[in-house]
Amino acid sequence: MMAATATHGPLRGELLLAEPMSRHTTWRVGGPAARMYRPADIDDLAAFLRELPADEPLFFLGLGSNLLVRDGGIPGTVILTAQGMDGLTQLAPDLVRAEAGVACARVAKFCTQRGLTGAEFLAGIPGTMGGALAMNAGAFGGETWDRVAAVETIDRDGRRRTRLPADFEVAYRHVAAPPQEWFVAAHLRLAPGDGEAAAARVKQLLAQRAATQPVGKPSCGSVFRNPPGDHAARLIEAAGLKGRARGGAVVSEKHANFIINTGNASAADIEALIGQVQATVRERFGVELQPEVRVVGEASEQA
């Protein structure tokens, strides 16, 4: 179904109808969102949320990494943060405010340019700050919430709050937030330091990522969490699963914890391959791999 654009009263954003999620996910798969709203900014988002029915399903989306949308699509409304909610400012000598739609890599660059250290690891996260906050994303030994001084949230009535880390339960790739609140900005506490050295560190980390991960190919990033004391990629490779395919989906030969869309994969192919990897690793090593990727939406009637 072709996407349609609709006006929405005095709001300043854009409302898309039956918008293919394959256009908005890094795996390049996924059926349509019934509605997708692209807010102009956080104030516009608040106004939009106040007009929604109380029972309208909501899903917040950044760059679409770490996400598998099933082929039947998403009912309800998807809020696309990546193109409007992208403010990035320095609030204090050691404090940066990044809105939910800002790419993590942009935050890393912004900080190094201002002589702030501690955010270099964000360059290795292929998503936005909103997604990084929601799952405590990490890379190269750093984790998002290690740098969080405060967050700004919004609820479905458009009310905004500033909350401290103590309001959340944070663990490895896990964040429990107050119900019916979504992240709209992070305040990151950093350390003044050598900006040139930090920039060099970012460059080194990106080179390391390019050398070890299938950068540039449609994937979601890491598919599975690392089990305690081990690495998911090691277990998958030891199980002989590199190159294992299902339809157009294949386990990367370069990094076993990545599944690649070779060009014609469906979400059903990818989900089935995830299940095959889990089953094989469980059978071989007795380890239950836990997905890091979030699976949402409805299966296709043809699946």
CATH topology tier name of the largest domain = Uridine Diphospho-n-acetylenolpyruvylglucosamine Reductase, domain 3
The second-level CATH architecture of the largest domain is 2-Layer Sandwich
Principal-axis shape equals globular
Which percent range fits the helix content?
Answer: 10-25%
Number of strands: 21
Q: Mean pLDDT, nearest integer?
A: 93
Please indicate the count of domains: 3
Query: What is the level 1 CATH name of the largest domain?
Result: Alpha Beta
Q: Based on helices, strands and strand pairing, what is the structural class?
A: alpha+beta
Provide tags for this entry.
303 residues; alpha+beta; Uridine Diphospho-n-acetylenolpyruvylglucosamine Reductase, domain 2; Uridine Diphospho-n-acetylenolpyruvylglucosamine Reductase, domain 3; Uridine Diphospho-n-acetylenolpyruvylglucosamine Reductase, domain 1; five-stranded mixed beta sheet; 6 helices; 23% helix; 29% strand; globular; disordered N terminus
